[in-house]
Write a structure and sequence with these properties.
The chain is α/β, with parallel strands linked by helices and about 300 residues long. Helices cover about 30% and strands about 30% of the residues. Helix 3 packs across helix 4 and helix 3 crosses helix 9.
């Protein structure tokens, strides 16, 4: 089979011919139809471990070999014609989703489910602030937040992207890449602050996110596009407002822990996808042979939503 190998030292991709993988007792062999691209793997964010080149890809959609069942989910080594999926990661593909839409769904929306529902407890009519709202997770957080009945504020440095996101339901658009948005957030919320913040940007806006939170507000740290890993903490605000801060990451979770999120996603989010109330935003679809060009588009930060490769 054909597979793209990813070299951690320089993030380069190389197409090779390799044997098909063989599934273990708790795995399924999946004929990959499409795979999603993820910044954390491809742009030196620490998710690709040093060492020899390995088949790239972290999520995808395809057919279970031998049964033809349409599945999507966490799919390591999905930049290939066949890949192995752990049975606990299997999510059935709703009939109304294309292969490309299915491949654009798993990781971002599983992360969003974790931070908005499992940990964030977002409720109807609450205020959600998403920093870096035009990122893949940011767009998914906007769409899921609106599907849950929340009101959403988003920050981005691109006026064009904010305009397009406003057409998707963004209630308040703030154009900025700096920690200077709390006054606008407070004005939009009538001085009360938001109930939940999704911080995609990192340490440079952490203190500003705290300033945006209202009483019993929650702050989810899910990314650090700015590379800033340290930030000041307003202990008085944490204490008096009864704030809750949490991280959103799968780095240290085992399969059973990830499985709890998958089961919650299937119970609470999958019906929203099946009904059409929730749908991933796809920026662009590339043919398998053009995966290096797809990676370049991600690196240029020109996309809005998910970049997908059709295998």
């Amino acid at each position: 089979m054909r597979a793209y190998f990813l070299q951690a030292s320089d993030m380069s991709l190389e197409l090779r011919e390799v044997p098909q993988p063989k599934p273990g007792p708790d795995q399924l062999l999946v004929r990959v139809r499409a795979a999603g691209l993820n910044r954390g793997e491809l742009l030196k964010h620490g998710l690709t471990k040093p060492g020899p080149a390995k088949i790239g890809g972290t999520e995808g959609a395809g057919e279970v070999d031998g049964t033809g069942q349409r599945v999507m989910g966490r799919l390591p080594a999905s930049f290939a014609e066949f890949a192995l999926m752990d049975k606990d990661d299997l999510i059935p593909v709703p009939a109304n989703l294309s292969w490309e839409e299915a491949a654009a769904t798993p990781l971002t929306f599983l992360v969003v489910y974790d931070m908005l529902v499992q940990q964030g407890g977002l409720k109807k009519d609450e205020w959600l602030l998403v920093t870096g709202v035009s990122s893949g997770v940011g767009v998914a957080a906007l769409l899921a937040g609106k599907a849950l009945g929340a009101r959403v504020i988003g920050t981005s440095g691109s006026q064009d992207k904010l305009k397009r996101l406003s057409a998707m339901g963004l209630d308040v658009a703030i154009r900025t890449r700096n920690p200077d948005f709390s006054d606008q957030v407070m004005k939009a919320t009538g001085g009360k602050g938001v109930n939940l913040v999704v911080n995609n940007v990192g340490g440079s806006v952490f203190a500003e996110c705290i300033r945006c939170l209202g009483y019993e507000g929650r702050l989810a740290t899910v990314g650090y596009l700015d590379g800033v890993m340290k930030a000041e903490m307003d202990i008085e605000a944490l204490h008096s407002k009864r704030l809750r801060l949490f991280g959103v990451s799968n780095k240290m979770r085992n399969g059973a822990q990830r499985g709890v999120t998958v089961e919650g996603f299937k119970r609470d989010f999958l019906p929203l996808f099946a009904s059409g109330k929730l749908k991933p935003v796809i920026d662009k679809v590339y043919d398998f042979k053009d995966l290096p060009a797809a990676k370049e588009r991600m690196q240029a930060d020109a996309h809005l939503g998910k970049i997908v490769v059709r295998v």
